[in-house]
Amino acid sequence: MSAEEPLCRIVRGVPTAEELAALVGAIVVRTRPAAAPAPAAVSHWARSARPAGAAPVTGPGAWRASGLPR
């Protein structure tokens, strides 16, 4: 492909500038790599129910340990 060769060509119809812009926008969005989803933010309400500085307990016995004082 040479520098003068267009990236795309309209073969039928006469699109408006807005229609061409919409087409180019759709192509650009489709060619971008998918971004990783943002981590879910913990709400202030949920954060207020946790003791300060307490990390969640994981592993065997975690359910039992979640109700015990630290």
TrEMBL record:
Superkingdom in the source lineage: Bacteria
Stretches for region Disordered: 49-70
Pfam families tied to this protein: ACC_epsilon
A GO molecular function held by the record: acetyl-CoA carboxylase activity
Compositional bias ranges of the Low complexity kind: 49-62
Protein name: Acyl-CoA carboxylase epsilon subunit
Source organism: Micromonospora chaiyaphumensis
Lineage: Bacteria, Bacillati, Actinomycetota, Actinomycetes, Micromonosporales
